[in-house]
Amino acid sequence: MAKPFDATLNAMIDLQPAAWASCFGGLVGIPPGPSTIVDTDLATTLQADKIFRIDGERPSLLHLELEANPRTGIPRELMRYNTLIDHQHDLPVETVLILLRPKALASDQSGLYRRCGVGGATIAEFRYRVERVWERTVEFWLGHGVGVAPLALLTDEADADLERALTRVRECLSEDDTEATVAKSLLGSSYVLCGLRYNRNRIADLFRRLSMLMEDSTTYQEILGKGLSQGLSQGLSQGLSQGLIRGRDQGLAEGKMEAKRELLLRLGAKKFGPPMPTVAERIREISDSNRLTLLLEKVLDVVSWDDLLAD
Predict the structure, then answer these.
(1) In the chain, N or C terminus with fewer CB closer than 10 Å?
(2) The pLDDT of residue 4
(3) Contacts of 35 (CB under 8 A, 6+ apart)
(4) Do strands 93-99 and 129-132 pair parallel, antiparallel, or not at all (unpaired)?
(5) 66 close to 101: Cβ distance less than 8 angstroms
(6) Under the phi-then-psi rule, with left for phi > 0, alpha for psi from -120 to 50, and beta for the rest, what region is 273?
(7) What's the N-to-C CA distance of the chain in angstroms?
(8) Measured between alpha carbons, how far is residue 247 from residues 70, 223, 227, 234, 236 in Å?
(9) In 195-224, which positions are buried (b, 16+ CB within 10 angstroms) versus exposed (e)?
(10) What tens digit of pLDDT does each residue of 59-80 get?
């Protein structure tokens, strides 16, 4: 799985693993059935992205590899993974290479890999599925459950009208009565994944406007409300001696900054992994609202917490 988006993609899959197993298992013809994630450690130096056991009519294994950047040699690696998975579990294995953007497509990713002997004759043949996310429609990904819904934002259709696609993703989360914590996490994943394909300013502006539309939603209010309540309490207590109105305004301002801090920590955790306590403390000490806004935009361009907080 390509860094720096592996943490975001893993989090997405772990939130709704059954949706991923059902969606991509169906694409390769695995009969539907209950699915479980199995260990991805294949050898001392090898680890697959995701492996599912699907216990349908014919129990099978589904192996997913996600790529965001072009790299030749992947088919050979997939064959090696497939052989090791089969050896460990003794079940049929279907492999799907999921390409997240057009840039990820390399010249040797045809869906067929052959190993040839010294004389040129084929000694082994391996077939795998190549799934180009951008070639599907927005509704295709939305139709396979909220767990894979953020992939809709990486399609060519979304590129033509990103605001509409993002609105449809948000509607999908609402229509399915998704738990607030899951919806919140998937929206954060959507923001990070958009960095694979779109200009930072375009994404930041769109998500800012979407936030305004979401102010009446429970998901947004859960993020903002926590910050507002903390800020109001702090601001009002400080403002009693200076006047309740001034204290209220100060509390609202602090509340909005607290909401930004929480959102920054959540988005960063999805892209870089959980922050060290010292990093989280640095972010919570930021008292400049403009700086917090810039850091939220910068999340899309950097690869680590250190890069994010570097001046």
Answers:
(1) C
(2) 59
(3) 17, 18, 21, 22, 25, 52, 53, 54, 55, 62
(4) parallel
(5) no
(6) left
(7) 29
(8) 54, 22, 15, 9, 4
(9) bbbbeeeebbebbeebbeebeebebbeebb
(10) 999 999 999 999 999 999 999 9
Report H helices in 214-243: 218-239
> Domain spanning 6-135: which CATH class is it, in words?
alpha beta
- Is 267:236 a contact under the CB 8 Å cutoff? no
CA distances (Å), 271 to each of 5, 49, 50, 53, 288, in order? 6, 16, 17, 27, 23
> DSSP alpha helices (H): ranges in 45-161?
74-89, 138-142, 156-160
Is the confidence at residue 2, as pLDDT, over 80?
no
Cβ-contact 292, 264 below 8 angstroms: yes
* Domain map (residue ranges) of the chain: 6-135, 155-309
Bridge partner list, 93: 61
CB 231 within 8 A of CB 252: yes
Cα separation, 174 vs 197, in Å, equals: 25
Distances (CA, A) of 149 to 23, 193, 310: 11, 11, 33
> In this structure, are residues 65 and 104 in contact, taking their beta carbons and an 8 Å threshold?
no
**How many Cβ atoms sit within 10 Å of the Cβ of residue 54?**
24
Which residues on adjacent β-strands are paired with residue 52? Answer: 37, 62
Which letter does DSSP use for residue 30 in this model? P
Place of tokens 């869906």: 111
Joined tokens for residue 214? 């979401």
Classified as helix, coil or strand, 193 is helix
